[in-house]
């Protein structure tokens, strides 16, 4: 079972095979070499934000906690690994007993991050930490990409309603995680019932063209919908002629009509025309919902249009051009043994190109000016300077294998709004630019 | 349970909530209006290929069949829908009994498609068909996007090995579906153990930088790996200095060393240097595997390099710039009742912009020239011309609610290779262009 962020508990399968094969073979080789239990520190971080983006958004942390709890090798899985000769007998024995028993610290969900930010820090034996690499990265890379797009869209929407409706554009479970990430990034509702079920995200629905086409006339369709769902429903008005549809809609539902949805055409122009028509018909409270390949730029371009809510699909669930983050999970320090007294030594790859990384177990803090506006992401491996002690970003998530930091999803959402508000104003620009905070290593 | 394409059977949860709320509210309104049982035909198709792409690849069909079989509302789900007032009592009763009882025809998995191709045709009552919209589109849009990218990469690789290793860059279950789609598109193996478990796709693994950094020297790391995994293993040689690493690798494993992996730097240059060094050391059979943000263009640019296999991650699982297809699921025909004798009438949206679609229940065939090379995708709603009767593309997948077209995944993979080979040569060009076949409506 997973926590579902304190929503409904959902039976989930073990996450242990969401793992690249090399993690298991590395464990095998390390077990044989006697190095598998060396005390190790892994960190998840990104070397760069997607091009032009000003900040990243941490999302997926709650799902990572579920994944770590559910990471255990069931008999059938062990049988598969045996049958396929993936690993040897001693390794199968190790895996059969596997439960993560280490510590995890990380940026709390909804927090913003920058290049180098140690978004997650995993400590334990080499073997127990390395096995979690793929599933941790899958979750953080996916969910953070969606949350980052959602955050830009919610900044562009400036308080108007945002409906996540991208389920049909991505893998069915990726869709559920996307709803969750979008909610953290500032969306209000989702059309995805599984996201409502699993995470208590408010669900909403309108109507599809198929419903109009099923009936002998648009009038029949509207009447059927209003009869069953009430006057507060949202009628889709662009199956045939919008002006006629709006007239029919108000005729049937009266001025109490909840909303109309426009899904095609020049949304700016049509929204103005429809608003004027609705007002003339006395339906001054009827809301206008627009959908149709919206992204943050389209949302921003509709700022002056009489739109009450945006429904966003494709561009949200594909991260608005950036469907994944480039977070990596690297060994940054390790001891020569399992002995807690044995010193942790920083390690880092030193090879060609831009793939180098900084060794050492890191802390991170956000330095702020007198007004409380963030100035820099400060990252270090030594002692934390006194003036930054109160601004530290990592929080304890797992202690000795036990999850210690469950929270309702709304807390992550509120945290994100606050974190974004604490950034310099230029964070909200949609145009391409550098990360809005510099990363300083001390 | 799902079929797992005749691989291991995997317990999967019901797919019934992978559904947009409006599908349920439309069912409610149609039930009340007495139109829910009108005989209906829905089709999944795309109005356009991603910009510049020459062909699409159908993938996900096997998963769609699983999803349809597993689409049933469990008590807990019905309780959720009741608690949240999503639908009324009669609708809950309808959903409680829901099992798809209609027919599904479609392009077989691995087949190529073009704008307008009726990739899937779903027939039954309005209510039973409309409920499947979201989950069908989620699967087809995701899986076909990945398969299309995989197909371009496999064309570029020209017979060299292709390893799918993108799990860490996408949602953990999207990753499993991506491995499956990549295999259909021409990939040979995957690093994702869940994909091996679920779909019998051959799994492989190399080693990570963390393994080298865990040990006191690269030499210790290589020795540990070879001791445990044998000389046939793949050693990662770019943690420190490549030349030194290759020397150490052959010293430890001997010329029987299976492969070396290069994950950074100028792959073209480094591969040449490493090949020369390996040959000089007598390791003429040792293979070179390259990884590091490869896409179809990078693969093509390495055609002249002494590379034996490509490991592809990010760009594969994100569809190489096109992470989703734009397939839609539209009501194209319906009768005025449930009576099979009642005539099916074509229906279509007629609104603004490019979102119009063609009404009518469709067949599709691929016209070929005397050499058997495809010339056109022919789509019609009337009788099939005699000369095209043998070239029809849709096959029966579900009959009266029963899945009738299970097949092993290898069949879809072989079908794709054959289908692609039957296209005009220009299909294999990586450069942007028009769809390689015109769509003709007759």
The structural class of chain A is alpha/beta
User: From the alpha-carbon coordinates, what is the Rg of chain A to the nearest angstrom?
Assistant: 25 Å
Strand order of the largest sheet of chain A: 13-12-1-5-3-16-17
Biggest sheet of chain A, open or closed, and with what strands and sense? Answer: 7 strands, antiparallel
Count of DSSP-assigned helices of chain A: 15
Instruction: Work out the largest interface and the residue count of each chain.
Output: A-B, 114 and 114 residues
CATH superfamily of the largest domain in chain A: nicotinate phosphoribosyltransferase
Shape of chain A: elongated
Family (chains A, B): Belongs to the NAPRTase family.
Protein name (chains A, B): Nicotinate phosphoribosyltransferase
Keywords (chains A, B): Glycosyltransferase, Ligase, Phosphoprotein, Pyridine nucleotide biosynthesis, Transferase
Enzyme class (chains A, B): ligase
Structure description:
The structure is a homodimer of 442-residue chains. With 442 residues, chain A is an alpha/beta fold. Chain A has two domains: 4-146 and 322-441, nicotinate phosphoribosyltransferase; 165-317, Aldolase class I (TIM Barrel), CATH 3.20.20. Helix content of chain A is 35%, strand content 17%. Chain A has helices at residues 21-33, 61-69, 75-83, 89-96, 126-130, 133-157, 172-184, 193-199, 209-214, 218-229, 242-253, 267-280, 296-301, 314-317, 409-421, and strands at 39-46, 56-57, 103-106, 112-113, 120-125, 161-164, 189-190, 234-236, 259-262, 287-290, 309-312, 327-334, 345-346, 363-368, 374-380, 395-399, 402-403, 439-441. In chain A, helix 2 runs antiparallel to helix 6 and helix 7 (172-184) packs across helix 8 (193-199). Chain A is elongated. Chains A and B meet through helix 1, helix 3, helix 6, helix 7 and helix 8 of A and helix 1, helix 3, helix 6, helix 7 and helix 8 of B. Chains A, B: Catalyzes the first step in the biosynthesis of NAD from nicotinic acid, the ATP-dependent synthesis of beta-nicotinate D-ribonucleotide from nicotinate and 5-phospho-D-ribose 1-phosphate. Chains A, B: It comes from Streptomyces castrisilvae. Chains A, B: Residues 344-367 are annotated as: Disordered. Chains A, B: It is an enzyme of class 6 (ligase).
